[in-house]
Amino acid sequence: MTISSLMIINKAGGLIYQKGFASTPSKLDSNEYLVLAGTFHGVHTISTRIAPVPSSGIEVIEASTFKLHCFQTQTGTKFIMTTDPEHSRVELHLKKIYEIYSDYVMKNPFYTPEMPIRCELFDVNVLRYIKGVNESP
Amino acid sequence: MIYNFYLFNRHCKCIYYANWQNDKEDEDNALSSKGNEMKWEEEAKLVYGVVYSLRNLCRKLSTVNGVPEKTDKDKEEDKENEDRGFLSYKTNAYKLHYYETASGLKFVVCTDPRSPNLQDMLHQIYRDIYVEYVVKNPLCMSDNDYINNELFKTKLHEFIKSQSN
């Protein structure tokens, strides 16, 4: 049970927060993350267009080495988490992160909406929560 | 429940498309949602774009999650495995499965979201149906044409029907 990274994408497809939690250093630079976020945003929209039945956007992507979970809020902000392939109940964790985001980012008077998140309290609380999840059996 | 099937060749072209949705229902809906209806050729291009982007995305992200330092031997093994990076994605109403062969053929299938992993089924379609009835057919000269082979069509439909039940 490991959560290896967290991304937050605003409603325009811009990456506003990215953090890796695995002990291994990430190989991608910030520009590549921006491109990936933009790509995902586009694919997420197209996936509703190519649906054989009326559908929402992508919720889970399965790959051979990891799983990517996406939670879209009513306002269009997307929370994305990558975990190992066996991870379950990730939706719950994403909603919890959304709660932390509401408390420490949206209620921060110095934060400009849709801009990159630079809030110390958010960092601390996300890290504490993810650590708790990763260390639980 | 299997909704539809796309087969793309290595030149990014959709060479086969099939749809198993209820046609009657479609006709009823066609009037109300005509503005939203797309030709399957257009849809196939979008599907190709989606799986191509997701394949690259998964490839990039999996290097982040895995062990970063690799020996040359590992890299060689990775080359074989890397095309199998992206397996499927799921929304609240459907699931899209993806399978790529070593020769660059891409099999895409849309099902209902509860279906299990279909990699083996797609591989079986490639091995038992595509290779048998398209590759081994002496009349199929070019690999860039839409497959109009009746035997392939019937065998594929039979196979999918048997899997759906």
From TrEMBL, chain A:
Keyword Transport on entry: yes
Protein's UniProt keywords contain DNA repair: no
Key words of the record: Endoplasmic reticulum, ER-Golgi transport, Golgi apparatus, Transport
Pfam families: Sybindin (PF04099)
Location within or outside the cell: Endoplasmic reticulum; Golgi apparatus, cis-Golgi network; Golgi apparatus
Any one GO CC term of the record: TRAPP complex
InterPro entries: Longin-like_dom_sf, TRAPPC
Main location: endoplasmic reticulum
One GO process term, biological-process aspect: endoplasmic reticulum to Golgi vesicle-mediated transport
Subunit comment: Part of the multisubunit transport protein particle (TRAPP) complex.
Classification via PANTHER family: TRAFFICKING PROTEIN PARTICLE COMPLEX SUBUNIT, TRAFFICKING PROTEIN PARTICLE COMPLEX SUBUNIT 4
Membership in a protein family: Belongs to the TRAPP small subunits family. TRAPPC4 subfamily.
Name the record gives this protein: Trafficking protein particle complex subunit
TrEMBL record, chain B:
Alphabetic keyword roster: Endoplasmic reticulum, ER-Golgi transport, Golgi apparatus, Transport
Alphabetical list of InterPro entries matching this protein: Longin-like_dom_sf (IPR011012), TRAPPC (IPR007233)
Any one annotated GO CC term: Golgi apparatus
Subcellular location: Endoplasmic reticulum; Golgi apparatus, cis-Golgi network
GO biological process: endoplasmic reticulum to Golgi vesicle-mediated transport
Cited SUPFAM superfamilies: SNARE-like
Any coiled-coil regions, as ranges: none
Family, as annotated: Belongs to the TRAPP small subunits family. BET5 subfamily.
Subunit structure: Part of the multisubunit transport protein particle (TRAPP) complex.
Protein name per UniProt: Trafficking protein particle complex subunit
